[in-house]
């Protein structure tokens, strides 16, 4: 197939999402196989974006998002298999802006769970088209009617099946195109009518034909309103399938081809363009420049026009030992060829594309060009980072995709190399891991001076450490995880600093008066000024902000980053000769610390949402354990002799929860932990943390 024929009309970009173990990876295999891409996963070894295979097989969980391509009928389907395990959500969520449709896979036996509910809501908020796929219908045919009902109950009456299981779930019958088969439950004709009713609601002309004149409508007439219904969330189709028996697999491919939106029919993800103020007065400071240049962002949509400027978005990064840095990206506008010169983000210098890859089955193949709607990869692309926008003109600088809210990495491990002299290699390897996975973060602990790797859970950190060993050959030891405490203030206050230094030649002078106020939890940081008459010239205000930000990141109380604070610069004074940037950075920092000291500062700790399933007999022990861990039970349910409960508990108290749970339940309990929010620590804990910390400012002159 030549590249020219592959216009956006023929592309479908679909991601498989949903809870761990529902069968997404197995389903992806079945779909590839049915489409004649029978080479299975063995071939992934040594191919880019597939290197975690061995680790995935050991774990029996996907840990990264894997792109695949298949051709079915008239359609080229780019399929992305995402990891369902909560620890790998960073990888799963960050790739979703590359697709029009997300198929949320649900296990027929286990039914709807918390993660499916969260995913459905998240997708609705992002405006992605949703498809529900009920997999493993071979395992629980008798539960399917109730599951269908509860899906409609929980996610709304717009959830309607496109097919129904038949002959004891050994196959499925179509309810849309040829609604005359026999199903295991429910009438195919009734479901067909419900589907048509739902779809025509969005098209007045068709509605008139259908309802008033009683005309039967052809599927082709329904195509456009069907797509509109998907885009507006007015219809969420449901398909039944068994990845292992093969029931419904071909039918699902038909649904992808005939009914799922192509890139011209979906809701495109909004881009943000920053309007830039060129005057900064502080050009030598790259970091400052960025903060002060960006003024206001406006939203716009890319045009899927092959002739337009290129706008593409990087959704995955992998460091490959042979191919260098590989970037998977979605073209939203324009056409990328091997000779295109692309800029990554706001980079001044372009790079030449060189090798352009597209996926056929699981194998990447070199192609000449990729137009709008395509999912492709670049190799040896040092310039790109996850989430960066690739473009071919400086007119498209200062553009980013509307950011995706990702879970916060709060589970930490302090890491030391076992071999002396490996420190540099360790920090380079960690930087690569963090670049690949937005759920990981690496930080230098301000209190202990240790390198701390943070992730979304225990399994997440363990797999990252395994990669360190396997890919980078770095052996490490780990120690008690440190907690990602934060600081904030509880009251407004004012602060002042007059910074003056006279040493030999040129002096330094800066004076700043400012005010700090608490913001609501999670609001972050705001900076403004009410300076009148140029008491501090606008060219020096960024220096004040820089000083404030320095103090914010190193903390004022116990060395943890400050958050949820608004800072307003009220007044100040300059000196005609000595008022340099550095003077205002220092004055800004110290005035801020002065204000925070009077603003009832406090330490916040991360609270985790703990969900536990365990035998009923262990409930007494579990509750007592939670009480001593400062936990609060939110909800308890019993199902037969099992109990399940949800609780909020300080993360610091549950770092060894897996072993405690094992001991209390004789190995029969399971749990999941995820970050919930920050809350102030009890006073005794705050005193201990402050005592353990010596501020660097204590050692400097004031
Ligand atoms: N009986 C049956 N088993 C299935 C079916 N689909 C998948 N499985 C099995 O379910 C298990 C989990 O399947 P995976 O495909 O690894 O699940 P996943 O959704 O990719 O899980 P994560 O990667 O952790 O998100 C495997 O043992 C599969 O063979 C099915 O339709 N029927
Ligand atoms: Mg998987």
UniProtKB/TrEMBL annotation:
<dbReference type="Pfam" id="PF00679">
    <property type="entry name" value="EFG_C"/>
</dbReference>
<dbReference type="InterPro" id="IPR020568">
    <property type="entry name" value="Ribosomal_Su5_D2-typ_SF"/>
</dbReference>
<comment type="function">
    <text>Catalyzes the GTP-dependent ribosomal translocation step during translation elongation. During this step, the ribosome changes from the pre-translocational (PRE) to the post-translocational (POST) state as the newly formed A-site-bound peptidyl-tRNA and P-site-bound deacylated tRNA move to the P and E sites, respectively. Catalyzes the coordinated movement of the two tRNA molecules, the mRNA and conformational changes in the ribosome.</text>
</comment>
<dbReference type="InterPro" id="IPR014721">
    <property type="entry name" value="Ribsml_uS5_D2-typ_fold_subgr"/>
</dbReference>
<dbReference type="GO" id="GO:0003924">
    <property type="term" value="F:GTPase activity"/>
</dbReference>
<dbReference type="GO" id="GO:0097216">
    <property type="term" value="F:guanosine tetraphosphate binding"/>
</dbReference>
<dbReference type="Pfam" id="PF03764">
    <property type="entry name" value="EFG_IV"/>
</dbReference>
<dbReference type="GO" id="GO:0032790">
    <property type="term" value="P:ribosome disassembly"/>
</dbReference>
<dbReference type="InterPro" id="IPR027417">
    <property type="entry name" value="P-loop_NTPase"/>
</dbReference>
<dbReference type="InterPro" id="IPR053905">
    <property type="entry name" value="EF-G-like_DII"/>
</dbReference>
<feature type="domain" description="Elongation factor EFG">
    <location>
        <begin position="602"/>
        <end position="689"/>
    </location>
</feature>
<dbReference type="InterPro" id="IPR035647">
    <property type="entry name" value="EFG_III/V"/>
</dbReference>
<dbReference type="InterPro" id="IPR005517">
    <property type="entry name" value="Transl_elong_EFG/EF2_IV"/>
</dbReference>
<dbReference type="InterPro" id="IPR047872">
    <property type="entry name" value="EFG_IV"/>
</dbReference>
<dbReference type="InterPro" id="IPR035649">
    <property type="entry name" value="EFG_V"/>
</dbReference>
<dbReference type="InterPro" id="IPR009000">
    <property type="entry name" value="Transl_B-barrel_sf"/>
</dbReference>
<dbReference type="Pfam" id="PF00009">
    <property type="entry name" value="GTP_EFTU"/>
</dbReference>
<protein>
    <recommendedName>
        <fullName>Elongation factor G</fullName>
    </recommendedName>
</protein>
<dbReference type="InterPro" id="IPR041095">
    <property type="entry name" value="EFG_II"/>
</dbReference>
<keyword id="KW-0251">Elongation factor</keyword>
<dbReference type="GO" id="GO:0003746">
    <property type="term" value="F:translation elongation factor activity"/>
</dbReference>
<keyword id="KW-0342">GTP-binding</keyword>
<dbReference type="Pfam" id="PF22042">
    <property type="entry name" value="EF-G_D2"/>
</dbReference>
<dbReference type="InterPro" id="IPR000640">
    <property type="entry name" value="EFG_V-like"/>
</dbReference>
<feature type="domain" description="Translation elongation factor EFG/EF2">
    <location>
        <begin position="482"/>
        <end position="600"/>
    </location>
</feature>
<dbReference type="InterPro" id="IPR000795">
    <property type="entry name" value="T_Tr_GTP-bd_dom"/>
</dbReference>
<dbReference type="Pfam" id="PF14492">
    <property type="entry name" value="EFG_III"/>
</dbReference>
<dbReference type="GO" id="GO:0005525">
    <property type="term" value="F:GTP binding"/>
</dbReference>
<keyword id="KW-0648">Protein biosynthesis</keyword>
<keyword id="KW-0547">Nucleotide-binding</keyword>
